[in-house]
């Protein structure tokens, strides 16, 4: 055995450190830095022209708005599903409990194929929806639908444990003090689950921004209209415009980084507010 | 199924059950939403797959291109999962047991494959190994093909599934502490022996959980693999890519037959996952 470093009682520090850094370096660090190096092959005006082209702007707009819509839908329905799973007993509950993770386990291409077929004008859903004048497949609504499917488990899985941990005493105290159930929910329970809702929202939103497999089928991929950012990157790659693809990818990476940063700050703020409230 | 009774005694004192009317409305809306988004699509996959009958189904999944897609998918998983398992164990041990400089950076880098778009995951390997890539000319000289070939698919799969095992094992190792390991070492066990006999059994359910998720993603990945694959039929098409090709050729029954295999994989994954959760709670 290698001589143990004096600071660590447990063995394996150097071996695991070396192995981990080598693996991460080779698979993550070097490949990702190639992305940024490639961007430098463009001059600033070229870069700017690529990332602000009308087609790129339309793609950002669609990706952002559809992901936002999907993440918000996930907040509403995710909270509802988590609430129902934690608070109520009904037949088939444990089956539902397992099924919630389906979007994580199901390959995204399968989700895309299936949703597209269901929502197309002759599909099981599409035929009724189109009778009502709502076209889903091959529109931006379809993009949001696919992204809602993909992000479904995030909010449920972040909110559920928090709801389970909330002490009954708190609710009882609120009730004893004369609060209506609705007041108890909005004033007592809701503030406690806001941080979890926020992180579920972020995870769903970030996942939706990058999602590709489920969207390419349902969106119809029309430039300027139903083209999401990841698809624009693929299109540019297929035209061997590596620099262009990279420029868009860098914008996307920066955007998701800023998003994560903003939400982390927001979360820290809401945690602090929560602590301040409970101290007061 | 699994011990729902733990919650039951508290029910009487719950103030927020709401009236039966509220309760049933909420349950109905939630279940309706899940039925529309999860249950019906699940049924639909199999219904579309069998729309032309059993024989067409069997033909679709037994034809040579489908078989080579199955083999390639299995191969990618068979390489990616063990690599990420070994890495995951080493990284979890490192991150759970030691404090060192660069720890936060390392954690961020490990999480990156989760947060970047699968398309970008594919793109970085094209930039590295593609014909116009950094190593492209060198590889071309030696006639080594990575992009639009099997190695690229394996690489992209390894990248995409890198965080799964670490992310599952790390929290388990952190909560369990290292008292037993220290005792074993004091009693004279070697580092490896301690790891194999003490650490590994302690985290086995976490490891299994990570492996299951890692495998599901490895077999089902679409975006990253699609970028590096080049879609050479029967050569560089994994199962999800094969389903896409059939779908684009309007062979819907065939596409869904292939998709049904992937759906079965997802269902098996969910069952195994539930089993592991149940066993790890029991132990």
TrEMBL record, chain A:
A GO cellular-component term linked to this record: plasma membrane
Primary location recorded for the protein, binned into one broad class: membrane
Keyword Transit peptide applies: no
Keywords attached to this entry: Membrane, Sulfate transport, Transmembrane, Transmembrane helix, Transport
Location(s) in or outside the cell: Cell membrane
Family: Belongs to the binding-protein-dependent transport system permease family. CysTW subfamily.
Membrane topology: Multi-pass membrane protein
Listed InterPro entries: CysT_permease (IPR011865), MetI-like (IPR000515), MetI-like_sf (IPR035906), Sulph_transpt2 (IPR005667)
Domain ABC transmembrane type-1: 60-263
Residue intervals passing through the bilayer: 21-44, 64-86, 98-116, 136-156, 188-209, 242-266
Entry-linked NCBIfam families: 3a0106s02, permease_CysT
A GO term, aspect molecular function: ABC-type sulfate transporter activity
Top-rank lineage group of the source organism: Bacteria
Complex and partners: The complex is composed of two ATP-binding proteins (CysA), two transmembrane proteins (CysT and CysW) and a solute-binding protein (CysP).
Keyword Zinc on entry: no
Organism: Myxococcus llanfairpwllgwyngyllgogerychwyrndrobwllllantysiliogogogochensis
Function: Part of the ABC transporter complex CysAWTP (TC 3.A.1.6.1) involved in sulfate/thiosulfate import. Probably responsible for the translocation of the substrate across the membrane.
CDD domains assigned: TM_PBP2
Official protein name in the record: Sulfate transport system permease protein CysT
TrEMBL record, chain B:
Molecular-function GO terms, alphabetical: ABC-type sulfate transporter activity
Topology class, membrane: Multi-pass membrane protein
Chief location category: membrane
Chain segments annotated as transmembrane: 21-50, 70-95, 104-129, 144-166, 207-232, 252-272
GO CC, any one term: plasma membrane
Location of this chain's protein in the cell: Cell inner membrane
Name of this chain's protein: Sulfate transport system permease protein CysW
Gene for this chain: cysW
């Amino acid at each position: 055995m290698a001589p143990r470093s004096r600071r660590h009682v447990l063995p394996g520090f150097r071996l695991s450190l070396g192995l981990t850094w080598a693996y991460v370096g080779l698979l993550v660090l070097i490949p990702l830095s190639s992305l940024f190096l490639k961007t430098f092959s463009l001059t600033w005006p070229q870069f700017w022209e690529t990332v602000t082209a009308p087609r790129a702007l339309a793609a950002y707009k669609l990706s952002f708005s559809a992901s936002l819509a999907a993440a918000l839908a996930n907040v509403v329905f995710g909270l509802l599903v988590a609430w129902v799973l934690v608070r109520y007993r009904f037949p088939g509950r444990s089956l539902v409990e397992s099924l919630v993770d389906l979007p994580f386990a199901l390959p995204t291409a399968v989700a895309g194929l299936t949703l597209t077929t269901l929502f197309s004008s002759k599909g099981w859903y599409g035929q009724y929806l189109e009778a009502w004048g709502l076209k889903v497949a091959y529109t931006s609504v379809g993009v949001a639908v696919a992204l809602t499917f993909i992000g479904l488990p995030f909010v449920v899985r972040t909110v559920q444990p928090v709801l389970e941990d909330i002490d009954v005493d708190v609710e009882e105290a609120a009730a004893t003090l004369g609060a209506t159930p609705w007041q108890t929910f909005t004033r007592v329970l809701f503030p406690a689950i806001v941080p979890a809702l926020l992180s579920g929202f972020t995870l769903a939103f970030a996942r939706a921004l990058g999602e590709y497999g489920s969207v390419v089928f349902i969106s119809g991929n029309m430039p300027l209209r139903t083209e999401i950012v990841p698809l624009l990157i693929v299109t540019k790659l297929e035209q061997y415009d590596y620099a262009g693809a990279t420029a868009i990818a860098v914008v996307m990476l920066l955007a998701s980084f800023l998003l994560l940063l903003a939400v982390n700050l927001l979360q820290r703020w809401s945690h602090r507010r929560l602590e301040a409230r409970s101290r007061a | 199924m699994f011990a729902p009774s733990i919650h039951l005694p508290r029910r009487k004192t719950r103030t927020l059950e709401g009236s039966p009317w509220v309760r049933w409305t909420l349950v109905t809306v939630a279940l309706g939403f899940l039925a529309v988004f999860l249950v019906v699509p699940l049924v639909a996959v199999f219904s579309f797959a069998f729309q032309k009958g059993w024989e067409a189904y069997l033909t679709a999944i037994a034809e040579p291109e489908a078989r080579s897609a199955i083999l390639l998918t299995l191969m990618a998983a068979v390489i990616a999962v063990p690599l990420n398992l070994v890495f995951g164990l080493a990284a979890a041990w490192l991150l759970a047991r030691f404090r060192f400089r660069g720890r936060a950076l390392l954690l961020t880098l490990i999480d990156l494959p989760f947060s970047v778009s699968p398309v970008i995951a594919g793109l970085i390997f094209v930039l590295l190994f593609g014909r116009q890539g950094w190593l492209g000319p060198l590889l071309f000289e030696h006639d080594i093909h990575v992009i639009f070939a099997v190695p690229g698919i394996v690489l992209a799969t390894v990248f995409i599934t890198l965080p799964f095992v670490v992310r599952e094992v790390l929290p388990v190792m952190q909560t369990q502490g290292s008292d037993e390991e220290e005792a074993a070492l004091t009693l004279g066990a070697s580092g490896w022996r301690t790891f194999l006999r003490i650490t590994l059994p302690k985290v086995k359910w976490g490891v299994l959980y990570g492996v299951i998720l890692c495998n599901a993603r490895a077999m089902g990945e679409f975006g990253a693999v699609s970028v590096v694959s080049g879609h050479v039929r029967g050569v560089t098409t994994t199962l999800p890519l094969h389903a896409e090709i059939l779908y684009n050729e309007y062979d819907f029954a065939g596409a869904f037959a292939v998709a049904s295999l992937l759906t079965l994989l997802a269902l098996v994954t969910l069952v195994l996952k539930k089993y592991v959760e149940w066993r790890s709670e029991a132990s």
